[in-house]
Amino acid sequence: MTKRKPYKRELPTDWWLKHAFYTKYMIREGSSILITLYSLILAWGVLRLSQGEAAFNGWLEALQSPFSILIHLLALALALYHTITWFSLAPKAVDLWLKGKRLEDKVIVAGHYGAFAVITVFCLLIITL
Amino acid sequence: MSELMIEIDVLRYRPEMDEKPFTQMFEVPYTPDMSILEALQYIKDHLDSTISFRWSCRMAICGSCGMMVNGVPKLGCKAFLRDYYPKKVSLEPLTNFPIERDLVVVMDDFIKKLEEVKPYIIPEKEKCLSEGTYLQTPEQAAKFKQFSMCINCGLCYAACPQYALDNKFTGPAALALLARYNRDSRDGGEAQRMKIVNQEEGVWGCTFVGYCSVVCPKDVDPAAAIQLLKVESSKDYLIGMFKPE
């Protein structure tokens, strides 16, 4: 008779707190919650804009409350965190070969930051001009 | 001068005697060049001969001695006491696998997954021996070489929370091996393997935690293999919408 009795360990619910790498991953994924919230606030603004000047001004005013500023700062911090960590992972999903050699990781990451800068400037121009 | 000692906690489990695993502490003489595997061999030879662990080559080739060292999946032969001394070292069997005995885990599910991805060259059309060998340029070989370096140690499965949450997920090493054959210019089996890739249990079970690539002792980078396969899977899906087979 076999004496085998493989023991299965349960995954603790706080597995993602046991190692900094997992915690950082969960923050990266979790950042999407606040970013979704922020896009909903923006979408709400567009809706208010369609309802006339008074409605839009009311929305702008609501954004100036300390709570709203806190949400914005949090959303900005998490969006930056998501962007930076995502850019650093980008080379894993890019497979470009030039003259028989794979494009170096740092070139791909730099390309992402370059595109980020160009698009940011373009958006700022649209808003301010 | 008295000998320097280091404390090593080992998670023990003896299926014929124990209901659940327990920790046993050993004191081992410390030298800076001693690997974790050598420390375990010292324990087996001098302190407790009943302790079980897998090992063979002692040089990060066979992939047998994977274990959790202070909670991180590592090869016992490639981790050294000097990186932990004077602190305690805690050894546990690889997580996400059932424990067979002490540091030995049941890897059957992992082996089954390796077999499922058709890890062999499937030529587009069989060539007669007289037609000669299948030729390949160094550049064509470079496209898959990294993904062929896997030693099947299972560290990436122990590092993968997605495999821990649902072990139907094909997992890092098997998908990297699949990528290795799909990227081989001599292979014509991509269509067969994409059926495995496209499934929920295929690449889409991966949420890009990326820890598999950090713990890989051979720099295979399974996370990259999976993300690249996601790109291929998306292309496959788009093409399938316009040109159903």
Description:
The complex is a heterodimer of chains A (129) and B (245). Chain A has 129 residues and is mostly helical. Chain A folds into 2 domains: 19-93, Fumarate reductase/succinate dehydrogenase, transmembrane subunit (3 helical TM bundles of succinate and fumarate reductases, Up-down Bundle), CATH 1.20.1300.10; 95-129, no CATH class. Chain A is 69% helix and 3% strand. Chain A contains 4 helices and 2 strands; from the N terminus they run H-H-H-E-E-H. In chain A, strand 1 (97-98) and strand 2 (101-102) form a beta hairpin. Chain B folds into 2 domains: 5-105, Ubiquitin-like (UB roll) (Roll); 108-242, Orthogonal Bundle (Fumarate Reductase Iron-sulfur Protein, Chain B, domain 2), CATH 1.10.1060. Chain B has helices spanning 36-47, 108-116, 138-145, 155-159, 161-165, 172-182, 190-197, 211-215, 222-242; strands at residues 5-12, 22-29, 66-69, 72-75, 89-92, 99-101, 104-105. Chain B is 34% helix and 13% strand. Chain B contains 9 helices and 7 strands; from the N terminus they run E-E-H-E-E-E-E-E-H-H-H-H-H-H-H-H. With 245 residues, chain B is an alpha+beta fold. Chains A and B meet through helix 1 of A and helix 3, helix 5, helix 8 and helix 9 of B.
| CATH architecture descriptor of the largest domain in chain B | Orthogonal Bundle
Poorly predicted tracts of residues of chain A:
none
CATH superfamily of the largest domain in chain A: Fumarate reductase/succinate dehydrogenase, transmembrane subunit
Silhouette of chain A? flat
Secondary-structure element string of chain A: HHHEEH
| Helix run count of chain B | 9
Keywords:
heterodimer; A: 129 residues; mainly alpha; 3 helical TM bundles of succinate and fumarate reductases; flat; B: 245 residues; alpha+beta; Ubiquitin-like (UB roll); Fumarate Reductase Iron-sulfur Protein, Chain B, domain 2; 2 domains; five-stranded mixed sheet; two-stranded antiparallel ribbon; 13% strand
